[in-house]
From TrEMBL:
Location of the Transposase Tn5 dimerisation domain: 376-459
Matching InterPro entries: RNaseH-like_sf, TN5-like_N_sf, Tn5_transposase, Tn5p-like, Transposase_Tn5, Transposase_Tn5-like_C, Transposase_Tn5-like_N
Origin superkingdom: Bacteria
Organism encoding this protein: Microvirga tunisiensis
UniProt-recorded name of the protein: IS4 family transposase
Domain Transposase Tn5-like N-terminal: 9-66
Coiled coil: none
Length: 473
């Protein structure tokens, strides 16, 4: 895997495919990535350091010629090159998250929902309007869990809120065309991600129960790509006489699999799963049978035996268009779905590391541009964390420039003599700058210590450049 040219800045790789018509906007984006990456989680004024740079950042996010698509264009191109550099299947993890902002007037940003709350003055229930944005992201990862980058992203907010319970009393939701639903975002991201990869057949789109959408299954078939989602709807199968779950009840267990899980108190234990799978003809919803064809899909069930303490038992129902001919293939698909948690970690870095919900920008357009920039920084931290776990023996020059390597060698002395230090060796040094103790039995460093270490390294680089000239030698 060769994510970047040795010795080059990672920004050169991520911004090479930028599509700004004005080169000055591309230069400003690069400068903002350097500033915010060096002060991850800090406010814009703190990251920019002076009024002129802060004002330039505000003007960039407010520029009508700047959009989230242009900010992420270079990153998407870099993701495509990383995907092309490796072989085998690519998992596209899909998920939606919310960014909540506290504003006096929600109109400039928009709303994401209304929730009941108790007003202590009147002692009656009222609706509390939550102001914010929603983001549906699609992250490409390898089967080993290495994030290659974002493949698609969609931001939106809600101007008008319609209660789903009220709507269901007047109309059957399955009769509403997908084009009139927010669920269309799943199809849009699937199309965008599949177009990014030269061979869509390599992509397996992984989603939780929210992704159990029949239109998604049909779209995957038309695009020549694949999907793996957790089943939520008990659909009709075969001739329509029985449902999907009823059909799987008649299938005997075909194997067992053991996995390590943690309970609510963090204690590790083993869960024994009974595995069964079956190929079925799944029919579309009754209201859409004239529009969509029936599809041959595989259902995989993983059920935990016994009742564990301090956690819910595992009962997974996965549905995919991929063929499964043996228990090992079914277990591999279960392992792919388990990687869906990676996109939750990506969102955690956005909110906890970049502190995206603490931004003070006043309009949705400005916030979306800032979030797009944060997505690049969050991917970078997540990529470094997982790179340390998947290819620890790689060359450090794939990540760090020669001056950074020399500086890390000066800052943190090696405990043992190594003829050829590896990437893991220098990532551990970065983590130690962020508070990682690097004891013999400690797990590999996580996202938090890495983003703190990277921020400290940026400050140290500046001091070294100004004080000793080390970075110029």
């Amino acid at each position: 895997m060769d994510p970047m040219v040795e010795g080059a800045s990672w920004l050169d790789e991520e911004l090479a495919g930028s599509t700004f018509a004005d080169a000055r906007l591309g230069q400003r984006l690069r400068r903002l990535l350097e500033q915010l990456g060096g002060a991850m989680g800090a406010s814009l004024p703190l990251a920019c350091q002076d009024w002129a740079a802060t004002k330039a950042a505000y003007r960039f996010f407010d520029n009508e010629r700047v959009s989230e698509a242009q900010i992420l264009a270079g990153h998407f191109a870099a993701t495509a090159s990383r995907v092309a550099a490796i072989e085998g299947p690519i998992l596209i993890l899909h998920d939606t998250t919310e960014f909540v902002y506290h504003r006096v007037r929600p109109e400039p940003v928009g709303v994401i929902g209304q929730y009941p709350c108790r007003n202590t003055s009147y002692d009656r229930r009222q609706l509390y309007t939550v102001c914010g944005l929603l983001m549906h992201s699609s992250l490409g990862v390898t089967p080993d869990g290495l994030p290659l980058g974002l493949c698609a992203i969609k931001f939106w907010t809600r101007a008008n809120l319609k209660g789903s319970s009220t709507l269901k009393r007047h109309i059957n939701p399955t009769r509403v065309p997908i084009e009139q639903k927010e669920s269309l975002r799943w199809l849009d991201n699937m199309r965008q991600a599949s177009a990014l990869v030269a061979d869509p057949a390599r992509c397996i789109h992984v989603g939780d129960r929210e992704g159990d959408i029949y239109e998604l299954f049909v779209a995957a078939h038309e695009l020549g790509t694949h999907f793996l989602v957790r089943s939520c709807v008990d659909r009709l199968t075969d001739d329509g006489a029985r449902t999907l779950m009823a059909a799987m009840e008649t299938v005997q267990g075909q194997g067992e699999h053991r996995i390590d899980v943690r309970d609510d108190k963090g204690r590790s234990s083993q869960a024994r799963l009974t595995i069964k799978y079956h190929r079925l003809t799944v029919r579309p919803p009754l209201a859409k049978q004239r529009r969509y064809p029936a599809l041959a899909l595989t259902v995989i069930c993983a059920d935990e035996q016994g009742a564990p303490e301090n956690r819910q038992p595992i009962h997974w129902r996965l549905i995919t268009d991929l063929p499964v001919t043996c228990v090992d293939e079914a277990i591999a698909k279960i392992g792919w779905y388990a990687l869906r948690w990676k996109i939750e970690l990506f969102h955690k870095i956005l909110k906890s590391g970049c502190r995206a919900e603490e931004a003070k920008l006043r309009s949705a357009e400005r916030l979306v541009n800032l979030l797009a920039l944060f997505c690049i920084l969050a991917w970078r931290v997540f990529w470094l964390t997982m790179l340390n776990r998947t290819v620890p023996q790689a060359s450090p020059r794939l990540v760090f420039t020669p001056p950074e390597i020399r500086l890390l060698d000066r800052l943190i002395k090696n405990k043992t003599v190594s003829p050829a230090p590896t990437l893991a060796h220098y990532l551990t040094k970065i983590a130690r700058l962020g508070g990682y103790l690097a004891r013999a039995k400690d797990p590999p460093p996580g996202n938090m210590v890495l983003w703190r270490g990277l921020s400290r390294l940026t400050d140290i680089e500046l001091g070294a450049t100004l004080g000793t000239g080390l970075m110029g030698n």
